[in-house]
Amino acid sequence: MTSDTEKVTGAGLGLRRGLLEEWHELEEKQPELLPDFIEVTPDNWMGLGGRYAREMRHFTDRYPTLSHGLSLSLGGPDPLDTNFIDRLGRFLDEYNIATFSEHLSYCTDGGHLYDLLPLPFTGEAVEHVSSRIRAVQKQLGRRIAIENVSFYAAPEGEMSEIDFLIAVLSEADCDLLLDVNNVYVNSHNHAYDAHDFISAVPTERISWLHMAGHLREAPDLIIDTHGDKVVDPVWDLLQFTYSCHGVQPTLLERDFNLPPMHELIDELAIIRQYQQGVSSDAA
Amino acid sequence: MTQHKSRLAQQQYEFTSALRDPDCATTPAGVPQERLEVYRELFFNNVRGILESAFPVIHEILPSELSESLARRFFREHSSHTPEFPRFPREFLLWLEQRETPEAGEPPFLYQLALWEWTELDVLLDPVTEPQASDAMDDVLAQLPLLAPTLQLHAFDYPVHKISADFIPEEPLDAQVYLAAFRTPDEGIEFIELNQASAALVQIMLENPGKTGEEYLRALAELMGHADAEQLLGFGREFFNDLYQQGVLVGTLAHNQE
């Protein structure tokens, strides 16, 4: 299968309904501050008409667009929903979106639970999820990227998270959407070294990066909420990621407690600043 | 279907059962109890939050213990087959329709109110595109009158459109109320109460697209047992014009007689 991943560059922002109004304002008043690319969640926009279809067209026409699914249940116990994958493929074609990503996780048990469940880190799970990723890639006619998810507990396993991730990337022959915040959250919640994890990731598989804020619920527990600003240790980890793997397109996710748009734009500016810092160091 | 489950599937079902049912006694192997509680809370709050924003009136009028126990039962019992998030609330409606016993103390109009609240969302999301209708209504009896393409019509035993914390009906209405919802050309939403005759006409149009105004009126006369269809045809243009003024009709298409 050929990789038709259209490499985006720079700093991107996840498209959310709650941001549309301010986003349009920014397009009129300060277009120089706009994100370099966007990411949409097909599951939130597929099969919609009226205003939503018009907005989707507006944004996908103007910005290089990546996509990030939620409902495929790549690791799930049910058969893949091939009908849904067909609809997904048509949506991606309709809006000219070359690149699709999903979570290394599952979200069904005969029905949808609408959030991400932790896979056990076992050889059996590697085998299962990899064969399904291959099937999805085949049906969509695209190489896809999988995201390392945040998790708060994992059912009994036999390998580490990083070994599990690397095994799936290799077995499924797919790309990686590396979520830097998730590495931080997991390293904290499961007491491992985030730098070791980042260093071990195969550079050539990285498609793009995610950044997000989280919630420190208790001293030993961070919840991955996408509801707050990115914190300093995660910014540091982003810089470390660039130093390990070179500059990668980086997308800011914000799903809850949406702040005024300019605060998100300020965070994009930080991403760009780090990207330029690394580029000029390298030059 | 009884088939042998792999160890992976066993681990997965064990985990999700423990999430769906907080009273479930088994803690999945490898999962600390307090972290299981974190998952339980995250998953349930997510579902509850989606229901609250999709069904704001239900959320407003039900005591919080009741809406919580409904949401818990829904999450425990229902297998949802809608991967698209915006349409997930419809699964709650399906569950209300399918479940065998209502929750103690729930109002008798719960399903109808949920249907009405879902209709609003469904109309806003509808992928149908606006047709190119002519606004010439003069010759509507010979032309093909067109309904607003997103229009949905429902008959209710309770005045669901008026329910709020200040108005909770205890008895059903003497006669059903007919409510239509549709998207307006400026992408807003309009709700209209129709009288019985208009509702019957709109229902006929929904079921038989592509007929002339006259054909619709004759069908209505027959349905209503009108001996004199000609009399109804006499009012016909006015009848359709009222619906047009309300936005229920978007105009007409030319009828090409061949």
From TrEMBL, chain A:
Alphabetical list of Pfam families matching this protein: MbnB_TglH_ChrH (PF05114)
InterPro entries associated with the record: MbnB/TglH/ChrH, Xyl_isomerase-like_sf
Chain coiled-coil ranges: none
Listed name of the protein: Uncharacterized protein
Organism: Solemya elarraichensis gill symbiont
TrEMBL record, chain B:
Database matches in InterPro entries: DUF2063, DUF2063_N_sf, NGO1945-like_C
Gene3D superfamilies hit by this protein: 3.90.930.50, DUF2063
Protein name, entry field: Uncharacterized protein
Sequence ranges assigned to domain Putative DNA-binding in this UniProt record: 10-96
Domain NGO1945-like C-terminal: 149-243
